[in-house]
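Dear Dr. L.,

I hope this message finds you well. Following up on our conversation about the binding site, I have prepared a predicted three-dimensional model of the protein together with heme C. For your records, I am including the exact sequence and ligand specification that went into the calculation, followed by the C-alpha cells. Please feel free to forward this to your student if that is useful.
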Amino acid sequence: MNIYRFLLSGFISLLLVGVGIATVGASNDTTVNKEQLFLPDPPSAKADTVCVQPVEEMRRWHGLYLKHQRHDTMNKGIRNLNYSLSTCINCHVTPNAEDKYPDIHEGNEHFCRSCHEYASVAIDCFQCHAGHPDHEDHVNEESRADEE
Ligand code: HEC
Ligand code: HEC
Ligand code: HEC
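The resulting structure of the complex is given below.
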C-alpha cells in the first residue's frame, strides 16, 4: 500500500508544480500586449475579388502551387493561368498611400514580403519576375505572348 501512497503523493506534487507553471505561464500571457507583437499584416488584394483558391488553402499551399505551375510551364509547356505569378501580383499588389507600389526587395509592405520577412522565407522569384503589376520587364504569360 505504501508504495501506492508514495506514488500518489508524487503524482499530486507533480500536478501542483504543473498548475504552478501553468499559472505563471497564464499570468505572463496576460501581460503581453497583442498590439505590440509584430505579426504579418498582408495588405488587402484588389477590392471585391476572391483568391484563386480558398484563403486557408492558399495560406498553406501557395508556394507549392506556384512551384508546380512553374514546373509545368517551363518543362511541359502547359499554361494553366490559375497559379500564374503575374496574376497573383496583378491582384495582390496595389499602390500604397503615396500611390507607389511597395518594394519587392525591401521592407515588409509588399504583399509577398509581408509574411516572408516575418517567417524568414527567402525566394529568388523576383530577380526575374516583376513584383508589381504592369512592369516593363514582366517575365510572364502576357509579355511572352506579346513577343510571339
Ligand atoms: C532566372 C529567372 C527566373 C527566376 C529566378 C524565376 N523565374 Fe519563373 N519564369 C522565368 C521565365 C523566363 C519564365 C517563362 C515565362 C513564360 O514562358 O511565360 C518563368 C515562368 C514561371 C511561371 C509560369 C508562367 C506563369 O506566370 O504562370 C511561374 C508560375 C513561375 N515562373 C514562378 C516562379 C517562382 C514561384 C519563382 C521563385 C520560386 C520563379 N518563377 C523564379 C524566369 C524565372
Ligand atoms: C483576383 C484576385 C486574386 C488573385 C488573382 C489571387 N489572389 Fe490571393 N487573395 C485574394 C483575396 C481577395 C484574398 C483574401 C485576403 C485579402 O482580401 O487580401 C487572397 C488571399 C491570399 C493569401 C492569404 C493572405 C492572408 O491575408 O493570409 C495568399 C497567401 C494568397 N492570396 C496568395 C495568392 C497567390 C500566390 C496567387 C497567385 C497564384 C493569388 N493569391 C492570386 C485575391 C486574389
Ligand atoms: C500569409 C503569409 C504569406 C503571404 C502573403 C505570401 N507567402 Fe509565400 N510563404 C509563406 C510561408 C509561411 C512560406 C513557407 C512555408 C510554405 O512553404 O508554405 C511561404 C513559401 C513560399 C514559397 C516556397 C518557398 C520555398 O522555398 O519552398 C514561394 C515560392 C512563395 N511563398 C511565394 C509567394 C509569393 C509569390 C507571394 C506573393 C504573391 C507570397 N508567397 C505571399 C507565407 C506567405
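In brief: Residues 55-147 form one domain.

With kind regards,
A. P.
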